Amino acid sequence: DGDRLEEEEAVERVLLWEKSWQPCPRARQRLQECLGFVRRQLFRVGEDWYFLFALGVLMAMISFMTDLIVFRLYEAHRWLYREIGDYAVLKYLSWTMYPVALAAFSTGFSQSITPHSGGSGIPELKTILMGVMLEDYLAIKNFGAKVVGLICTLACGSTVFLGKVGPYVHISAMLAAYLGKMRTSVTKEYEDKFKQNEMLVAAQAVGVATVFGAPISGVLFSIEVMASHFAVRDYWRGFFAATCGAFMFRLLAVFNSEQETIIALFKTNLKLDFPFDLWETFFFLALGVICGVVACAYLFCQRWLLGYVKENKFTAKLLRTDKPVYTVLVVLLLASITFPPSLGQFMASQLTMKEYLVSLFDNRTWGELALSVPAGDPGSSHRLWQEWCHPSVSFFGTLAFFLVMKFWMLILATTLPLPAGYFMPIFVYGAALGRLAGETVAALFPQGITAGYPVIPGGYALAGAAAFSGAVTHSVSTALLACEATGQLAWALPIAAAVLAANGVAQKWQPSFYDGTIIVKRLPYLPRIRSRHMASYRVLVEEFMNRRVLSLAKTDAFGEVLAALTAASTTADFPVVESAELPTLVGTVSRTELVAFLQSHGSAGEKPAGTVGGDCTIEPVMLQLSPWTSLHQTHHLFELLKLQQLFVTRGGELVGAVTRAEVRMAPGQGDA
């Protein structure tokens, strides 16, 4: 036995020596010291720079590769439709079944991985930035589902007519969250919520910038659309990351021989020496008002249909159990309508989203082109503007028909449960609206308002795109976005005038597209106070606060704590007062603390000892409301500090509480 014991000890010593021995200990130590020195030197300037640079470059590569794959898939659809021949049935099947299959796969694949991959993602991200954490929304498993689903959605082309801005913002946010975790593992430093929010704000700008190649307007648009309050210290983060992303995105196009140098995303040739007549400013303002009115109708109908689809028994059941089936039915309807030999010939349905914009931003007047080069002339070279011309209908008719049909088709497409963006479609729709207005003005003034300076309909299309998209999203930065994406800064003033006029109408009567989606989805988001009447400033906390607040006294014992936890099963923090007779607010105690109190005192005997004041950690209340605090002040505090609840005291005594629900339902909150 002794020999066997010695033998085992010897084996253990050998195994321990083999496990602990590592070659070249001095070299390894020097290498570790060098790596540590390099890391300290690199992070001396701040690790944010490397993080934001990596975020911008990665998003640019994702955006470029996505566009490349979508282009190949769309060209395959065009080739299939063209090579089938003149068999009407086969042409119809090739036109409809291709997008139906892609959309069904997009829905089934993304929804099978996570339900958070559907839609644009901006409403949920706005909710997160307001301080409400949505579980698994930024998880990396959503990343693949969103990217693959979005590629299939975009490859459907003009049949579904959906974009990619919102999904790119969501993808960028997921990538930022994942990179934040990687940075934490490298630097060994804890990343708090404020740091996470700073990076999410930068991620929003990168998502927009890598779609349009527009870093400045990307930052401003992300601030307008997604942030209720913005810290100026985050400004440089957004601009740096967006610039890296936009530069890399356009640089990849040069490397791929798509362009000779870095230029604007949409090629335009609008006049710069005399872009517009001064009197045309009134037409631009009128165009802005029209865009605002149409945007109000669009927002109302879209919000109504989104709610109806969720409440209707048939569609609600499909969306709960068979989402791909709902997608197949809707896409089949949309594809059948856009079938080129049918109604699609009056809607230029064979153009891609980018080709739509290039044709609508054409600096030439279509009326003159139609007279000089007939659309049906077989000897003329094919041009994009000819897609809008028809032998039996003028381009005025095709533009008007496009606007009428796409109005409800786009609204219907927003109900699809697949990854998709909704900004590019409304941008194209606004461009068509502006083009129709511009061609009308050109027809009324063939020689121009001032003789010798003809009207340029492409400028009106640019203003219409910015005005309608700005009215739908309640943003003004779309004016700069339109100029930056086309390189036409000379048109900035009339475009800005149209955008302001459109926003003035839309913001008066309807919530924005993303706020409307939040309302329908019932996300815990606090919308801004739309009312600016003086009466809304006189609404006080005592008019809408919750007066029935469940509180605990410092002297409460086991029974009272158990009753409170049972009565309020979802409450996270309970207010603590001095006593039932003297309800002076002394602080709050968390639910976790109370559960631990019950567990530690529940086995003490028949009559458990201990009180809340003596055995629980009571956190002080740093901020309280007065019954005479105004609604606007309360709303501002909730937005700025990302609060979930505030207690109301009068002379130190607890008299009520206000949560986000009370603020949303307050008198005057929704009045226009």
UniProtKB/TrEMBL annotation:
Question: Which residue windows are transmembrane per the record?
Answer: 49-71, 147-179, 200-223, 235-255, 276-305, 325-344, 488-506
Identification of the protein by name? CLCKB protein
Q: Which UniProt keywords apply?
A: CBS domain, Cell membrane, Chloride, Chloride channel, Ion channel, Ion transport, Membrane, Metal-binding, Repeat, Transmembrane, Transmembrane helix, Transport
Tell me the domain of life: Eukaryota
What CDD domains does this protein map onto? CBS_pair_voltage-gated_CLC_euk_bac, ClC_1_like
Q: Which Pfam families match?
A: Voltage_CLC
Q: How does it sit in the membrane?
A: Multi-pass membrane protein
**What GO terms fall under cellular component here?**
chloride channel complex; plasma membrane
> Where's it found, cell-wise?
Cell membrane
